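## retry 2 of 3
previous attempt timed out at serialization; input unchanged, resubmitting
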Amino acid sequence: MNAVLVLIIGFIIFIIGYRVYAKYVDTRIVKADPKKATPAKLYMDGVEFMPTSKNILFGYQFKSIAGAGPVLGPIIALQWGWLPALIWILLGTLFIGWVQDYSSAMAAMRHEGASMGGLSHKLISPRARIILLAFLYFYLLLIAGAFGAVVVNTAIGLKGSPMAWLFMTGSGILAGQMIYRWKKDIILTTVVTVVITLFGIWVGTVAPSNVIIGDTLANSRVLWGILTFVFCYFAAVLPIWRFALPINYVASYVVLLGLFFGIIGVFVLHPNLTLPAYTSFTIKIGPIWPIMFVTIACGAISGWHSLVSSAGTARQLEYETDARPVGGGVMFVEMMLALFALITAGAVFSSSSEYAAALVKGPAGVFAAGVGKFLNAIGLPLKIGTTYGSVMMIFLAVTILQLVIRFMKIATSELLGDVSPVFKNAHVGTFIASLLGILLVFTGWWQYLWVLFGGANQLMASLALMLITAWLMSEGKNSLWALLPMIFMLVTTIAALLYTSYGLLVKVFTGAVKGEALIGNTIMGFVGFFLVIAALVLAVEGVKAFKRYQAIRVQPATVKA
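## retry succeeded, writing output
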């Protein structure tokens, strides 16, 4: 298949999903009301709740949900063949992905900007809230360790990326000042800050970190680890308009520009997908079902998105009608990023063996090389294009990481705030989250946590869809469009966790691993089974809630009869 055809199919799904399906749900089922006051207006505090233009939120949402997942997942999944990956990206987004993102924001808005913990308490049960918050903290910690390692490794491996990161941070802070303090035009602000960031990428190529601070510091995991979490600390404790929101907004344009011109490069070169359409049902990392469905998370459906939409975006939406373009529309854009990532690997290698050799060095390098090739097709020097692709990776990772620490701060307050008031302090919750994240990066234990990331991420998506279904039932609305995806994701995720955990423990009991790997596999194997138990308990609590809402709906008709 030609790569251009892949993009055209993606555009068609985009139009059908956003202009037809999402519009029908938004106007006929959920009935978004532009006149209804949103939590951003009702509880505006300038810290978490802040009415924000949908044009700004679009960029913020995109950069907040689009991490390394939509790039790395499709590239890894090509081992099963490009056809299964393509089908899951398209159908996953059309029937599940946007449903979760949009509905999480709407449910949170209709419940005064409640987080996932608050929604589970109101819609399911108090027990569900405790279990969900405990799982949520572990899940966020896993992301903090894994994405923190991605940032540190990229800063060391690509010496020009720290300078680009520095310029992006300064541009983001400037953007917040220009928009919310100086009241400057959004177009002017965007042009100025994005140009500064792009200039920073160029500066990084001529003044890499090893030239500025020397080889020893430039290769120091300690230095970059501390700087990474200092960055995240400010993102968590400062008002959202001052740091996290504008930085993600500016970074979104860097990624979107790379995606836009990369797609143009695909149309110019119009290469064929050279890797096999299908290899086999089971490969080294597992069978297509359920493992591929948790390998490709972001880009099809990801539990992380529900956290961004509820605890972040829902508290900033100015109008209810903004939820469809910001929540639903952005998910379809991320789908296009996943398709582009699929093409960067599926169409640039002459053989499966060449792809496998490149994959061993890391999927991030595969993506950077693909971006360089397609940007080179429109006239950009190959070296700069490849560097741009690498910088996209660090931007994708660090802008997610800062929100992870911010959400861990909120989870700490909700989970332990009743135990002691000290845990409600923003600095305390942020310090604990940052410290745990740094320890995981420095010790290397994130590698073992990462094994469960795909399953834990999609389990979060399953639980989010459960809350959405309960919300729709509580409102007496048609819930089938959320219930069916929830069932599919819950069954698939539990199967994936069982498969992964069983595989880890088999290596332990057969003596296939020793030393640190023995400890890591043992802990993660049992943690996986505990996650399955937690998921089953939450499923039971959800079914009870569903039956309760059904009984409430049936009761008036029975009395009337």
